[in-house]
Amino acid sequence: MREFLHGARMLLRGLGQWRRSPGAMALGLIPGFLVGLVFGAALVGWGILLGEVVDDWTPFANTWDPLWATVLRTAIAVASFGAVAFLAIVSFTAVTLAVGEPFYDRIWRATELTATGRIPDAEYGFWRAAGDAVRLIARGALAALAAWLLGLIPFVGGVLGFTTGLLLTGWLLADELTSRALSARGLDRRARRAVLRDNRARALGFGVATQLCFLVPLGAIAVMPAAVAGSTLWTHAALRETPPAADRAPDAAR
């Protein structure tokens, strides 16, 4: 739990970057706002149509006792909306990071300078961001499917599906958000995953804290710049405190 909370605190430290680089952080709100409008409208539309969709999915329940038909359809509706919400958050992060690459690159650079006094040489770039975004959305779809299936379990499905979705998407967000700072130090995808595994509880703490903020209305837009800054600080701490992972990244140790 201590490591989990330590990871969550990295998001709070990312908020501190507003004092040091207010201009770059403010610009980081723009892509999140634009993408958020599209995703918000899609979620509202899904919520409006959900009742009819669930009725179409469950014609067999028309002959059931009204109470049990309502229980079934409510469970499916809650699980379906929750799964789509989790997928939307993961997709929002992926699309926003790709679309806002120049903005978040400025935040990353500013955070690197204030924290270490130097910027790593390896480039991240738009195409690498786009590739990471596609992989994140695909993995997010699997996480959303798992949350949806668990959400269908009677009585406990809502809590179980939400908790599972929160942990899975939190891990995915930590993976995606730290990829820039880790890749800039010359780590490939396998080495990045090794760093996350070596700091599993801390990665979950950071990812879940970010995910919870994203679940708050407009939270994803407001917190995204801090998440980019916080993930950079998370990377610094992880590479300092896990020598085996750092050994796979010579540039990080210098």
Characterization of this structure:
By secondary structure, the protein is mostly helical. It has 13 helices and no strands. It has helices spanning 2-15, 17-20, 22-27, 29-57, 66-99, 101-116, 126-151, 157-183, 189-198, 200-215, 219-241, 243-247, 250-253.
| Residue share in β-strands | under 5%
Largest sheet: none
Overall, the morphology is elongated
In whole angstroms, the N-to-C terminal distance is 30 Å
List keywords for this structure.
254 residues, mainly alpha
Helix and strand arrangement:
Blueprint: H1 2-15, H2 17-20, H3 22-27, H4 29-57, H5 66-99, H6 101-116, H7 126-151, H8 157-183, H9 189-198, H10 200-215, H11 219-241, H12 243-247, H13 250-253
Helix pairs in contact: 1-10, 1-11, 4-5, 4-11, 5-7, 5-8, 6-11, 7-8, 8-9, 8-10, 8-11, 10-11
